[in-house]
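Lab meeting, item 3. Inverse folding demo.
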């Protein structure tokens, strides 16, 4: 009986963990116009201001932004709009 309860509890935790991450997506954006060391910071700042963005990492070397976001709160069009409004137009390079 204890094994069944433990199995049910463990199953419930697994299902709950899956639901928490259900809306999480990752997108790689190709970002134009980054020419100096402060540019990635500006792009990252614009992205993290978007509601639903959990993390944004920007690399000037590759001219890319890797963004983790909740797709129940935002979408890729809003992310590219945010970088464009900051002066750095972007396009989708890859999604997960």
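The presenter then showed the designed sequence:
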């Amino acid at each position: 009986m204890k094994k069944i309860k433990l199995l049910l509890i463990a199953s419930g935790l697994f299902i709950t963990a899956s639901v928490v991450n259900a809306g999480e997506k990752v997108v790689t954006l190709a970002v134009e116009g980054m020419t100096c060391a402060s540019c990635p910071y500006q792009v990252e700042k614009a992205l993290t201001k978007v509601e639903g963005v959990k993390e944004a990492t920007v690399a000037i070397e590759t001219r890319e932004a890797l963004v983790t976001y909740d797709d129940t709160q935002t979408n890729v069009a809003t992310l590219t709009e945010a970088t464009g409004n900051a002066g750095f137009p972007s396009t989708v390079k890859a999604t997960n």
